[in-house]
Amino acid sequence: IDPPQPFPSNLTAPSSFVVLSTPSLIAFLDILPLSHGHLLLCTRAHRPKLTDVTNPEARDLGGYIRLLSAALVRATGIADWNVVQNNGAAAAQVVPHMHYHLIPRPEIRASGRFRESFTMFGRGQREELDEDEAEHLAEELRQQIADILKEEREDMEGKPPKQKL
């Protein structure tokens, strides 16, 4: 997969909260989140549907969904989440650009909020992203991504090389 870039691309809007930027992908906080930590991961190149994504982009998307999921769990403390990707208007795709939603799913029963109900994709009601909270969360997510990558690098360095058959 492409390595993360240290700074967000200048192609994003100034009010976006980018957590991951590579030459082919970008991940950022959803401006109308279904839950705290709701992320979007998409290709930089315009790809209307998942079937329009190139093989290298598909490999990168898969690798970064795993990485972003791990960072999201660490940053939010929420151990359950949805990964959602819609293709076409009949499948509820609103923005005609392929993207994944990573949506934390807090446990409502453990919190005593029994009357609260969740839709398949989160709270069911979207609220505007709080910019102060988003800035803090985006920074925490970036730090968690960096920590996970460092841990994985250290794990790989500590293991003997795989033998070729």
Q: What does the model show?
A:
- With about 160 residues, the protein is α+β, with helices and mostly antiparallel strands.
- Helix content is about 30%, strand content about 15%.
- The chain has helices at about 55-75, 130-160; strands at about 20, 25-30, 40-45, 80-85, 100-105.
- A five-stranded antiparallel β-sheet has the order 1-2-3-5-4.
- The longest helix is centred in the last third of the chain and has 28 residues, at about 130-160.
- It starts with 17 loop residues before the first strand and ends in a 7-residue tail after the last helix.
Extended strand count = 5
Strand content: 5-15%
**Helix content class:** 25-40%
The rounded distance between the terminal residues' Cα atoms is 25 Å
Order of helices and strands: EEEHEEH
Keywords:
165 residues; alpha+beta; 2 helices; 15% strand; globular; coiled coil
Q: What's the arrangement of secondary structure elements?
A:
Elements: E1 18-21, E2 25-29, E3 39-43, H1 55-76, E4 81-84, E5 99-104, H2 131-158
Antiparallel strand pairs: 1-2, 2-3, 3-5, 4-5
Helix pairs in contact: 1-2
What's the gist of this structure?
By secondary structure, this protein is α+β, with helices and mostly antiparallel strands. The protein is 30% helix and 15% strand.
